[in-house]
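thread: overnight batch results

M.L. [08:02]
morning all. the overnight job finished for the chain we discussed friday. pasting input first so we're all looking at the same thing
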Amino acid sequence: MKSFEFTTPVGREPRLDDIRKAAGENLHLRRFAAINVIDPTKPYIPTFAKADAICRISRRSVDARGGDLKTVYRIDAYMPWENYREYEVAPYQDVHGARKVAVVGSGPAGMFAALKLLTLGLCPVILERGKDVHARKTDMARLSRTGVVNPDSNYCYGEGGAGTFSDGKLYTRSTKRGDVREVLYQFVSFGADPSILIDAHPHIGTDKLPRVVENIRSAIVEHGGEYHFGKRVDDIQRKEDGTFVLRARDLDVADEKEPGAWTEYSADAVILATGHSARDIYEMIQRKGWPLEAKGFALGVRVEHPQSLINSIRYRGRWEEGLPSAEYSFTEQVEDSLGVQRGVFSFCMCPGGILVPSATEEGTVVLNGMSNSSRNSKWANAGVVVSIEPEDVPEQYRDQGAFSLLNFQHDVEKKMYDWTVSQRTEGEGAPNLLRAPAQRMVDFCEGQLSEDLPETSYRPGAVSAPLHELLPPMVVERLQQAFPAVNLHGMRGYYTNDALLLGVESRTSSPVRIPRNADSLQLESVPGLFPCGEGAGYSGGIVSSAIDGINCAEAALRYIFPERFPSRDDDPEGEDPFKDS
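M.L. [08:03]
and the structure it wrote out:
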């Protein structure tokens, strides 16, 4: 296979004949050679019966450097002897009556673990504490409108997980952990736009993801899998025969008079994919004496700019109607007053997006960003966060073991809430309890309270606050260095008082890890239990979480049917055991 680049002016799709001509030149083929061009985003692809080569569009990106704006396509070319085959998703099997695997959580890790289990002939039993993707919208609307948090149904908990309502970004660097195509092609088969197959930074959009997630559920149920909503897992027991019993509280029948019913589920293995905010799962693991450890995470602010400003910066003043809303990313290494270096980086950038409240319990303020597929709002937002390691937290947290960073994270979120509540004025009425402390960017860096605030997309509202005093000092010091540096390193105009900082962005990843065996992916002390995804500390984002779910599903098959998987000593050829699954 040989790759080459092909460019067109932005807004103009490539002509197949032009790609064929470029391929012929790059491959040194005869004049008028028959070349098939595959565009994965198109439903129909004209082909020659006996082609001299096959060219596939594998990547698309916009290049705003230099003179004219252009779209850059990477073309992968295959010669006939290379036996090129287009990627196909493995078929789902009918698993009615098959061996069961409990999947705790229905976010990306849980959903794709369940889909993989179908291809392997195992029955996924999904236990989700939240509601289905449509019912949870009511709770999220109430959250934004009134500040009332449903601790089991919000922007983090519910069908599809946090990613369903945060733009659906599908960009990942975790390509060595698994085949990204298995994730992207399945998303397309369930209704995502085929453009995600080639875009450099693919996304689905918050407006389209719910339907995609619902289609995934329908396929799982149709093939024999099970979905159980409103089931908060409270206990997991491993029996002597190696199977499991899970106890789940029935949240949908609980009320103030009744403590709630409990349901038990049996399974041959358990995939624990509860997401980065399920503190009660960590507490259950601690009660049972299973291992936990503190893990570094990142904490900072959401930064909101006018989208027109980001467009001007990224397109070098040449943005025009019809071009996609510009995005950005950056990483800065900064050194604090003690000489400690830490990374400051952008996270979950939402061009043409809005800010949303992501608290999962009352008395805290947490923000996240999201975008619809059109990315057409007048704001751009991103998390800008500082890497936090266990040794970075204040002294009072360091004797709290695995919960040291989790408790530190919680206290910062609570401090944001307490400050905004303290700013209520007499006769103000009942302001939204999830108003965000906010400060203009230059004011933050200069340590000055903002006299007024620009308009924001954050529906609960913002209140002027001294974020330079409310955030942890090591976060403040590093952010104050990073923002002017970004302005100097290729994004002139980014550092401006037209940008608004809102606190706090703290759910970048889990501050706790559930350690597992690197080969079997099982919790060492509990064979058959597979910590998975962001909540276990092994992924970050939709695609990497989905890949981890796929890997854990394969590991569950090895656990349930060990006789199918001889050791390397018994199988020196190392044949792929999933080849015929």
